[in-house]
Write a structure and sequence with these properties.
Blueprint: H1 3-15, H2 18-56, E1 60-65, E2 67-70, E3 76-79, H3 87-96, E4 100-115, E5 118-127, H4 131-135, E6 139-142, H5 147-151, E7 156-159, H6 161-168, H7 171-174, E8 178-181, E9 184-192, E10 207-211, H8 212-219, E11 227-232, H9 238-252, E12 263-267, H10 268-311, H11 313-321, H12 326-362, H13 371-397, H14 401-406
Parallel strand pairs: 5-10, 7-9
Antiparallel strand pairs: 1-11, 1-12, 2-3, 4-5, 4-11, 6-9, 7-10, 8-9
């Protein structure tokens, strides 16, 4: 029989038993949805982490005061902060550690920012002009403060995009205006480009940048740093650089053997590695759950097809009586089982695709679609149906004409 005839018979048979058909497809549908969904979400999260690492700066390495801790949410925090990380420490790292291309010491703290009769909390990032190069983060409007302004302790700031929108209503309205931080006034010379959240979980658009010397002498009168951001040269041995920094800082801070470090180091690749490990666990659990769903779907197709064989004994006997071969019966029931499973799998893949497109359209996450995953799911669904339908098809082919006539 032709494929068209088989398809018509299969469609009529399945349509006559709608509830059984839907129940048989449900397990495969859920399995396909779970498998493609978990794999696609994992790919999206990995790509998002890579984009965040690229946005943080080329070959970024940060040395911070205190100990880095990774939260369950995937963001990065610092605990056991202390005030013995000084500017000479940062300079010593930049000058003595091999592979450092550029560096930007910084102090990071949160405080209110007032301007245009509005007040908002913002993260103050006091740093050097080299921050732009190290973090690949530059103004879109106006300019960044200069080295001369940093040395002169000039009272100038550069606003993050969200701070400019929140305080002044937009970047153009912010340029040339003044904001008050502590009890001092600072002139806005620039507004940064939109950057979004980085791997540490920090919203980079909610920052206010000022010269490091200005903050240390005119704003807060402190002599300690939060840390230093380093841009490493391409191909650098990060492990060697880490060991050099550790040895240098332990010597400068007079840390004895056996005592814990009072500083820590963070590499963008370390954060990506941790996120990958968490995603690998999620993928494993997703594969297990989808495998169970596929198994349930296969058992559902098997049981439904066995019931169909018993309900269609007369039809099978008539087809045998008018010259139908056993191979025709086998092909027909295998075709129906494969169709059941393939339609269920296609439904799961289609729903996953719709959800992923909607997710990418309404969130800042990148759209990542792997045709191999979707194709493999469809192929696996069809093969599952053929495997589950093989035994019922064999049963149907063994039905004898005389047995049917007796009943």
């Amino acid at each position: 029989m032709s494929v068209i005839v088989n398809l018509h018979i299969a469609y009529s048979s399945l349509l006559a038993r709608k509830l059984r058909t839907v129940l048989a497809m449900l397990g495969v549908f859920l399995g396909a949805l779970a498998f493609t969904g978990v794999q696609t979400v994992s790919d999206i999260m990995v790509r998002n982490a890579e984009m965040q690492a690229e946005a943080m700066g080329p070959n970024l390495m940060s040395v911070v005061s205190g100990r880095v801790r990774f939260r369950r949410s995937g963001s990065v925090g610092v605990k056991d902060f202390n005030t013995n990380f000084k500017l000479p420490d940062a300079v010593a790292i930049m000058e003595n550690v091999p592979g450092v291309a550029a560096g930007a010491p910084y102090i990071s703290t949160v405080m209110p920012v007032r301007g245009a009769d509005r007040v908002t909390d913002a993260r103050i990032m006091a740093t050097w002009p080299e921050y732009q190069q190290v973090r690949s983060f530059r103004p879109e409007f106006g300019r960044f403060f200069t080295k001369a302004e940093e040395q002169a302790r000039a009272k100038v700031v550069v606003l993050g995009r969200e701070i400019a929108d929140r305080v002044f209503g937009g970047p153009n309205q912010a340029l040339g205006r003044e904001v008050r931080i502590y009890r001092a006034s600072f002139r806005v010379v620039g507004v940064m480009e939109v950057k979004g959240q980085d791997l540490s979980g920090e919203n980079q658009d909610e920052q206010v940048f000022m010269p490091l010397s200005t903050y240390m002498r005119r704003a807060a009168n402190v002599d300690w740093l939060s840390g230093v951001n380093l841009s490493m040269v391409d191909g650098v041995d990060f492990d060697r650089a880490r060991r050099s920094i550790e040895a240098l800082m332990r010597q400068r801070h007079r840390i004895r053997p056996g005592q814990p470090d009072d500083f820590d180091m963070l590499l963008a690749r370390d954060a990506i590695k941790l996120q990958r490990e968490a995603l690998d666990l999620m993928q494993t659990l997703g594969v297990i759950s989808s495998t169970i769903s596929f198994a349930v779907g296969g058992m559902g197709i098997l049981s439904i097809m066995i019931l169909m064989v018993r309900a269609r004994r007369v039809e099978i006997g008539v087809r045998r009586a008018v010259g139908g071969k056993r191979s025709d019966i086998v092909r027909q029931f295998m075709f129906e089982a494969g169709l059941l499973s393939a339609v269920g799998g296609a439904g799961g893949v289609t729903l996953c695709l719709v959800l992923v497109l909607a997710f990418a359209a309404f969130t800042p996450f990148p759209l990542v679609l792997d045709p191999l995953i979707f194709g493999a799911t469809l192929l696996g669904s069809g093969l599952l149906g053929l495997f589950a339908g093989s035994y019922p098809a064999y049963q149907a082919s063994r039905i004898e004409i005389l047995d049917v006539l007796k009943t």
